[in-house]
Amino acid sequence: MNNSFQYRTFLQEPLVEKKVLENWIVYIKLTTFRSEGIVDAFNLEFDKLNLNEVRGMILDVRYNSGGNSDYGYKIISHLIDQPVETARWKTRKYLPAYASWGLPEEWHEGSMGTIDPSEGNHYLGPLVLLVGPLTASAAEDFVLPLDYSNRAMLIGSKTAGGTGNPITVSLPGGGVFMVCAKKDYYPDGKEFVGYGIEPDISVQSSQQDVYENRDRVMEKAIEVLQNWKHYNN
Questions:
Q1: Residues 24 and 51 sit within 8 Å (Cβ to Cβ)
Q2: Does pTM top 0.85 for this prediction?
Q3: Selection from 17, 20, 16, 19 nearest residue 53 by Cα
């Protein structure tokens, strides 16, 4: 069965959207990590910037439901000057005989390694991530190392709390059922699967905001970057 319809909505948006706001605050929306093209699109826009003029950067992953974590890591490599740790993970070993013998489950554990700084220019100034309940899977893998290393400030709402990496089962009528097969967690053992990653500054939008096309999360991000020393303490 062809399930290519699943992600068609992303084809209607550019992979990367960039705006230069007042006071040289740069806004970049990262739509999805499902396409390797997002790395090239980000690099193209990043290389156009005069980094000496940039006073703050906003990366928006509120509507990014993931894809391939490596694509996000390649973007992070332009935002750091030293290696940063990524998630650790574990998955159940499939040993059904253990259950019949009354033995406990076993786990296989691993690490997604570290992200090294890229060659070329890097942006090392104030950085804000916009996050929300649709931020999931590889997008949460993108948020985690920037949060764990204190490289970025998170603003918005809790992320989805799901690592992705699903086992996919086709359902009658063209539906799809997916269940996560891997449990990710912070290098220090902090869990987020089932809980979500908490923002540093929680901002909730109201129905009235939607009606008025008002983005309170973006407003707060701009306020934070304009008063970075105050908020970064």
A1: no
A2: yes
A3: 20
Least confident among 4-13, 37-46, 79-88, 126-135: 4-13
**Assigned token pair, 28:** 């970049």
What count of other Cβ atoms lies within 10 Å of the Cβ of residue 217? 24
DSSP designation for 7: G
Between CA 67 and CA 24 the distance in angstroms is 30
- The DSSP letter of residue 15 is S
AA letter at 38: I
Pairwise CA distance, residues 226 & 209, whole Å: 22
CA distance 161 to 185: 10
CB 71 within 8 A of CB 49: no
Mind listing the pLDDT tens digit for each residue in 186-223? 999 999 988 999 999 999 888 898 888 999 999 999 99
Instruction: Give the Cβ contact number of residue 54 at 10 Å.
Output: 15
Sort residue 66 into left (φ over 0), alpha (ψ -120 to 50) or beta.
left
Q: What is the CATH number of domain 4-231?
A: 3.90.226.10
Q: How many helices and strands (H and E) does the chain possess?
A: 7, 13
CA distance 194 to 189: 14
Report the alpha-carbon distance of residue 43 to residue 74 in Å, rounded.
10
Q: Are 133 and 202 in contact (CB under 8 A)?
A: no
Structure tokens at 87: 């998630």
How far, in whole angstroms, is CA 133 from its chain's centroid?
A: 11
- Give me the residue label for tokens 């190392």: 145
d(CA 200, CA 27): 19
